[in-house]
């Protein structure tokens, strides 16, 4: 048994560096918040495809729609041509998501990934304003293409570009300089002062809660001040909701609580409903500057994505899912607070909200150790932050309560194994 799985690893060594290093198994099946590997070992999914599986693995309602669509000879690939699946999605997205929130956006299909959405958002802002510079924030994560990487505040990832990336100015995110410093003032000053050397930007791009960057959360006041600064200077505000959107923080859009109205919103990951590649860029109608053919891409109109996404929207027709997220968030918060109190000399902070919360470890390596040991206890969880110092709890929004509690209990067991013999 062991020999055969090692053989698989040898074969998979041909894959460029990836998760096989941290989660050493070959997965085979999944259902809602559970995964099984080839050997039949069961795992609890506290990672949810980095936020791509908000409605769980193989969501039954969505799967039924997909199977039916395939059986009915529904079109799978149509470039960006109009299809019934696309039309239905657009109508339902407006009805269920935008109209009740009194939001008006035109919808662009930028390509299949979050990176595509960010790239198209930045291009739109440059085209609208005729300016080049983009303001981004420390620890931001926006994607892997040159433009989105330029706006990613992580020198390790940027190193992958092999060259320095132009036309971005980084400003400290909320909390970066400690709780008492209002970093929006820095942005305001830089933009007001010709002596700052900062070119008037096309856009400010931000995540309301930085998923990859360590679960840093912007306050409502800070977000409102950033919006006001954008309005004052005629700068477009882009909210990258690729990871925090579709309910991760508790509401469909992560910026709802702050009451801000971004000019452009990037969505991907869970918008595809079933883990299917799909992305949207929501653009205020007055900023739709695109002519046919100017921004295209072969996989922009994933019809299976539209079918899955349309069915997933039914979760947002009432507030049942939102209430479930709030209740589960409380379960996670209480559990993590308990762990922080118990292991206070190792765990320095609890971060995040909704179904993305995490523990910040004093020794960054301990977060990776927790992730590695949790895997041995049948829990898949990942780390984030510039030093991988935050261990994240990020299950599908549809996780069964008992499974959530079971996963949290296993994390406690792991921490007990890590620390109790050495005393905290
Ligand atoms: N923006 C944010 C906030 C993300 O978390 C990610 C992915 N982790 C991206 C953009 C890029 O998305 P993708 O990996 O689909 O290109």
From TrEMBL:
The record's listing under PANTHER family reads: DIAMINOBUTYRATE--2-OXOGLUTARATE AMINOTRANSFERASE, DIAMINOBUTYRATE--2-OXOGLUTARATE TRANSAMINASE
Q: Which NCBIfam families match?
A: dat, ectoine_ectB, PRK09264.1
Query: Key word Iron present in the record?
Result: no
UniProt pathway: Amine and polyamine biosynthesis; ectoine biosynthesis; L-ectoine from L-aspartate 4-semialdehyde: step 1/3
What is this protein identified as?
A: Diaminobutyrate--2-oxoglutarate transaminase
Give the gene name.
ectB
Q: Which InterPro entries match?
A: Aminotrans_3 (IPR005814), Aminotrans_3_PPA_site (IPR049704), Dat (IPR004637), Ectoine_EctB (IPR012773), PyrdxlP-dep_Trfase (IPR015424), PyrdxlP-dep_Trfase_major (IPR015421), PyrdxlP-dep_Trfase_small (IPR015422)
Q: Which cofactor does it need?
A: pyridoxal 5'-phosphate
| Enzyme Commission (EC) number | 2.6.1.76
Q: Which UniProt keywords apply?
A: Aminotransferase, Pyridoxal phosphate, Transferase
Tell me the organism: Paenibacillus chungangensis
Q: Which family does it belong to?
A: Belongs to the class-III pyridoxal-phosphate-dependent aminotransferase family.
- A GO term, aspect molecular function: diaminobutyrate-2-oxoglutarate transaminase activity
């Amino acid at each position: 048994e062991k020999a055969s799985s090692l053989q698989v690893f040898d074969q998979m060594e041909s894959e460029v560096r990836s998760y096989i290093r941290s989660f050493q198994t070959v997965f085979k099946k999944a259902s809602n918040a559970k995964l099984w590997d080839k050997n039949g070992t069961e795992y609890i999914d506290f990672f949810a495809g980095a936020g791509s599986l908000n409605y769980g693995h193989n969501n039954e309602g969505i799967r039924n729609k997909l199977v039916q669509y395939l059986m009915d000879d529904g079109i799978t690939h149509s470039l960006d041509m109009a299809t019934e699946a696309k039309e239905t999605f657009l109508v339902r997205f407006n009805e269920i998501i935008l109209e009740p929130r009194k939001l008006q956006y035109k919808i662009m299909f930028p390509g299949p990934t979050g990176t595509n959405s960010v790239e198209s958002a930045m291009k739109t802002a440059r085209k609208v304003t005729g300016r080049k510079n983009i303001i981004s924030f420390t620890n931001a994560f926006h994607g892997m293409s040159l433009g989105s990487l330029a706006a990613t505040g992580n020198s390790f990832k940027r190193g992958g570009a092999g060259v320095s990336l132009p036309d971005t100015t980084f400003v400290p995110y909320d909390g970066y300089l400690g709780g008492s410093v209002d970093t929006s003032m820095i942005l305001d000053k830089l933009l007001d002062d010709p002596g700052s050397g900062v070119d008037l930007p096309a856009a400010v791009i931000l995540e309301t809660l930085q998923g990859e960057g360590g679960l840093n959360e912007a306050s409502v006041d800070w977000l409102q001040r950033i919006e006001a600064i954008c309005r004052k200077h005629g700068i477009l505000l882009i909210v990258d909701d690729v990871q925090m959107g579709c309910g991760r923080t508790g509401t469909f859009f992560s910026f709802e609580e702050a009451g801000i109205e971004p000019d452009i919103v990037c969505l991907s990951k869970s918008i595809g409903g079933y883990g299917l590649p799909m992305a949207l860029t929501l653009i205020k109608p007055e900023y739709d500057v695109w002519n046919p053919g100017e921004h295209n891409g072969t996989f922009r109109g994933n019809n299976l994505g539209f079918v899955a996404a349309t069915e997933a929207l039914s979760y947002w027709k009432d507030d049942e899912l939102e209430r479930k997220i709030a209740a589960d968030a409380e379960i996670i918060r209480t559990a993590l607070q308990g762990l922080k109190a118990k292991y206070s000399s190792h765990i320095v902070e609890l971060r995040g909200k909704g179904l993305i919360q995490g523990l910040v470890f004093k020794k960054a390596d301990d977060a990776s150790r927790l992730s590695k040991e949790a895997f041995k206890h049948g829990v898949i969880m990942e780390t984030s932050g510039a030093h991988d110092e935050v261990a994240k709890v990020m299950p599908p929004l549809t996780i069964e309560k008992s499974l959530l509690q079971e996963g949290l209990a296993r994390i406690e067991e792991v921490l007990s194994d890590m620390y109790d013999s050495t005393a905290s």
